[in-house]
């Protein structure tokens, strides 16, 4: 299936501001980028690099005034990978690949080593079979017990805050899920990008776990994990996959996101 994603971000910039962005899609198995665009208005030079997780990143200095960053992508994507039968099991720590090991450690927003997180993880999933069954139980519990609402959390909100307050947005749902999974020694990472099945369209965050010697997608915002996705970036938590990181005096004014699936009979040539 071909899928389009577009985001338009507008800033008011008060002093020349260095930024790093993660707005271009990853090129990886299951996601073939057909075309993409990245534009800053007014035009300024920008450079690109790849971070330690393989995410494409951009660097620029935004000029004073109103600045708009527009990104567009069309990609050939598959539906969210179904869970096989029998379901994937837990991978012993000694059998994890080296590059997966840091996804079982606590991180800035996912304090998986705290007693309060451990208590909640055991209450939710302690009696379930390690692996897929535990992860899915965590995903369902968050969906059923955490309220989705804008404007009540911010860039300082952690998994522990959500465990206590039980209200937030996709980033918060994902941080709590990651912390609970890691507490059970299941590697988990945060992924951000476009999803076609959202009631309120935005750039979205979900989580992936390493079970059965592969990465699988889980989404606590959805009633069940489904849909088509374009992945932009993944990392340990939001600190690794921030859409824009700024080093200066600038204020986000608006973010507009569009997602479109192109059915076979209407696909562009």
UniProtKB/TrEMBL annotation:
Could you tell me which InterPro entries the record lists for this protein?
Bac_transglu_N, Papain-like_cys_pep_sf, Transglutaminase-like
Q: SUPFAM superfamilies recorded for this chain?
A: Cysteine proteinases
Q: Which residues form the Transglutaminase-like domain?
A: 162-222
Task: Tell me which SMART domains the record gives.
Answer: TGc
- What is the designated name of this protein? Transglutaminase-like domain-containing protein
Q: Which organism is it from?
A: Dyadobacter helix
Instruction: Identify the taxonomic lineage of the organism of origin.
Output: Bacteria, Pseudomonadati, Bacteroidota, Cytophagia, Cytophagales
């Amino acid at each position: 299936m071909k899928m389009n994603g577009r985001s338009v971000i507008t800033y008011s910039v008060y002093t020349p501001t260095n930024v790093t962005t993660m707005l271009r899609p990853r090129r990886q198995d299951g996601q073939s980028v057909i075309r993409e665009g990245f534009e800053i208005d007014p035009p300024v030079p920008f450079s690109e690099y790849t971070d330690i997780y393989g995410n494409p990143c951009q660097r620029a200095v935004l000029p004073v005034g109103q600045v708009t960053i527009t990104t567009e992508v069309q990609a050939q994507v598959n539906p969210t990978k179904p869970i096989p039968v029998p379901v994937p099991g837990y991978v012993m720590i000694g059998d994890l690949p080296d590059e997966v090991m840091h996804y079982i450690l606590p991180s800035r927003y996912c304090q998986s080593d705290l007693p309060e997180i451990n208590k909640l993880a055991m209450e939710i999933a302690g009696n379930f079979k390690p692996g897929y069954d535990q992860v899915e139980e965590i995903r369902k519990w968050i969906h059923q017990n955490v309220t989705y609402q804008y404007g009540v959390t911010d860039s300082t909100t952690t998994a522990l805050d959500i465990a206590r307050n039980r209200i937030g947005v996709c980033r918060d749902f994902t941080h709590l899920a990651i912390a609970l999974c890691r507490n059970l020694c299941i590697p988990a990472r945060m992924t951000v990008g476009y999803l076609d099945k959202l009631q309120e369209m935005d750039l979205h965050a979900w989580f992936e776990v390493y079970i059965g010697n592969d990465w699988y997608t889980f989404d606590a915002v959805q009633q069940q994990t489904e849909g088509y996705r374009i992945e932009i970036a993944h990392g340990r938590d939001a600190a690794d996959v921030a859409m824009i990181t700024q080093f200066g005096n600038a204020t986000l004014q608006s973010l507009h996101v569009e997602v479109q699936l192109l059915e076979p009979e209407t696909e562009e040539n």
